[in-house]
Amino acid sequence: MHISRRNILRGTVVIGAGSVLPTALLATPASAVAAPTIASCVTWGARNPSSTLTQLSNRPNKIIIHHTATANATTYTQAHAFSLARAIQNYHMDSNGWSDSGHNFTISRGGYIMEGRRTSLSHLTSGNGFVTSAHCPGQNTVGVGIENEGTYTSLLPPTVLWDRLVDLCAYICQQGRFGASQIYGHRDFVATSCPGNAFYARLPELRAAVAAKLTDPPPTAWSTIVDNTSAGFRASASWLTSTYSTARYGADYRYATPVAESDAAYYSATLPEAGTYRLEVWYPANAGYNASTPHVVFAAGGSQTVSVNQQTSGGAWRNLGTFSFNSGAQDIVAVSRWTTGTDYVIADAVRITRV
Q1: pLDDT band for position 77 (50/70/90)?
Q2: What is the pLDDT of residues 192-201, one digit of tens each?
Q3: pLDDT tens by residue, 41-59
Q4: Which among 217, 320, 329, 232 is positioned nearest to 273, based on CA atoms?
Q5: Is 229 found in the same domain as 178?
Q6: Are 129 and 205 in a shared domain?
Q7: What pLDDT does residue 161 have?
Q8: Is 241 within the bounds of a domain?
Q9: How far apart are CA 218 and CA 28, in angstroms?
């Protein structure tokens, strides 16, 4: 696999110091959690999306709880629930300009669960993939958005809504293979009152109720480290070996001068399954190392480049980000020499963790 200058320069993101993300609590799929009854978009009479929805290969890794901020209706019929779903979709498409309902699922105050954005239900049922949504900036490719009918700034949702929410969250956790600790409120990610003070205060209870339904214990997250001395590492003879810095990982590390050609140091691994993985790098920082070292990630959806300042924050794991990969043996990330300046680029170690 070769790295082109176009791939190096495309979509570059610079990571800062200390940007390590917490490991998600994973859960083995629990066969005891039955699929709740969910009305599809066709069933409740949804409009067709105004444009093609982006389908993803990764499964979601969290749930985000919303309230609709609409009236606390006392009509609990299925007809009312379906009317609510249509009204939300109309608002999201006609007022917000979105291509479809922004969220993935809706629960009415009468306890009816409905699909929101099209293909959310098929992805959930199969336990594979996800659809890019629009309910929470920064989380729309990894977070399942659940709208709960009503306004819960001071009131709590009806028992029937709560019970269906527990059922739905447990099933989502099972299918997504993550734990109840990954249930959040909308306000955890953006400045909003959603899902209301009263509802938000009850989220610990929701997590506990969902965890109780996930009867199988969570396994240890899969993780592997590929050092520059590992079988999964390869580089040309132009990459020299050094023991200069005591902040290295392992016995030594590799270094090379910048050059405008494809001569990268590659880290490969055999991933146990298709899904989402967090990538972290270890390097010994030094003022003489490169401030913009390209790390090319060979994600399932295409190569992505993350630029790392190797002059600072060395001697620790530094987060590159979370990416989708297919299963099996493959190149995961490459440290490229195609950058500016004359300072050395460093290839030391990479840690890969399933999330």
Answers
A1: very high
A2: 999 999 999 9
A3: 999 999 999 999 999 999 9
A4: 329
A5: no
A6: yes
A7: 97
A8: yes
A9: 6
Q: What is the mean pLDDT of residues 289-305?
A: 94
Residue range 122-148, pLDDT digits in tens: 999 999 999 999 999 999 999 999 999
Strands 183-185 and 62-67: parallel
Location of structure tokens 């109840």: 180
CB distance 200 to 190 below 8 Å: no
Task: Tell me how far apart the alpha carbons of residues 151 and 156 are, in angstroms, rounded to a whole number.
Answer: 9
Residues 204 and 72 in one domain: yes
Specify the residue for token string 């030391």: 348
What CATH number is given to the structural domain containing 283?
2.60.120.260
User: Do 45 and 192 belong together in one domain?
Assistant: yes
State the pTM of this model: 0.56
pLDDT at 9: 30
Note whether residue 27 is domain-resident: no
For residue 220, pLDDT over 90 is answered with: no
Q: Answer left, alpha or beta for residue 347, where phi above 0 means left and psi between -120 and 50 means alpha.
A: beta
Q: Which of 213, 238, 261 is the last residue of a domain?
A: 213
Query: What CATH number corresponds to the domain at position 117?
Result: 3.40.80.10
Which of 192, 213, 234 terminates a domain? The answer is 213
Find the domain containing 47 and state its range.
Answer: 38-213
Which residue reads 């029937």 in tokens? Answer: 160
Q: Give the model's pLDDT for residue 16.
A: 36
Checking if the pLDDT of 241 tops 50, the result is yes
Tokens linked to 182: 């990954």
